[in-house]
Amino acid sequence: MKFKKTIFDKEKDISKIKTKEFDLSLVNAKDGDNGIMYFGRSSDFEFAEMTIDIVNDGAVSTGNVYPQPQRTGVLYNAYLIKPKFNISTSLLYFLSSTIKKSIKLKYSYENKASWNKVKMELLQLPIINNNQIDFDFMEAFIAELEAYLTTAGLKDYELTLQEQKALDEFEGHEFLWKNYNIKELFGASTRGKRLKSADRLSGDLPFVTTGEANSGVSEFICNDVTIFSANTTTIDMFGSAKYRNYEYGADDHVAVVHTGNLPKHAAIFITTSIHKSSYTGKFDYGSHFYAKDADELMISLPSENNKPDYSLMATLISAIQKLVIKDVVLFAERKITAHKQVV
């Protein structure tokens, strides 16, 4: 893929932002953002669709592989390959992941991932009984993975600029922190009510008690109990805090912090801060944590203008959540190991 004009002017011929004029994705030695750092004019660059982008150079990015289903051109330090057979977007994603797994750790800045080398690599792919590549399995696997990520709200795992900035500032210890009182932020905490095991009727409402197993949900009931809102935080009698994204009931050993008006990711951040403050070993069977203890808790939060910066909290948790998805993908890759043979 080449630049069509005689002279390339970086200031005039590419843009870091996609616009109507600069509408063509350009791959280069980029780590993240699907290998795309710049955009060019479609009239200035050769391009192709349904390709796989391989980064052949870069201190960190060498050996990165990205699916490029859209029209894509090459800026530098990367190249595009295109399967000889008709390919769907799902297969493009599967093959890109497989190629990366095969080459990423073999190449480096000192050992470039040139096509002359990479084309000789072996790939592990699922096959059927006649030793033909099992494309149907690949399609079904990607569809299943996408369905899971969508259902879990985790399909989008590319970091935004704002999320990356939040991560960088957090890791660089650039946040401004301040201590806040739980009661002053969210009002008085609420204590659940005692409901003996023998009196619990089987139903659909999660009933939260003390414990780590099943996130403290001991049973599902249909009793007439107080139903606490989703997007709130529970603290059990040992001081263990957990975020609840569903409605639930709770027994008298559970305190509920009413974070329901916060954005979801900000509420999750609050839960982690509460847990850090409350789960210190101070509370046990002889000394229980109660709602009054929650009201006295002080938690450390990112601050702006002497107020909790809930927007920053939400952005940071969103970024961390996206990073965790990478572990889900690794798990998914292990799932197909049993079906693979060297092709």
From TrEMBL:
The keyword DNA-binding applies. It is an enzyme of class 3 (hydrolase). SUPFAM superfamilies: DNA methylase specificity domain. The keyword Glycosyltransferase does not apply. Its EC number is 3.1.21.-. Pfam families: Methylase_S. Keywords: DNA-binding, Hydrolase, Restriction system. One of its GO terms (biological process) is DNA restriction-modification system. InterPro entries: Restrct_endonuc_typeI_TRD, Restrct_endonuc_typeI_TRD_sf. GO terms for molecular function: DNA binding; hydrolase activity. Residues 14-147, 177-322 form the Type I restriction modification DNA specificity domain. Belongs to the type-I restriction system S methylase family. This is Restriction enzyme BgcI subunit beta. The gene is bcgIB.
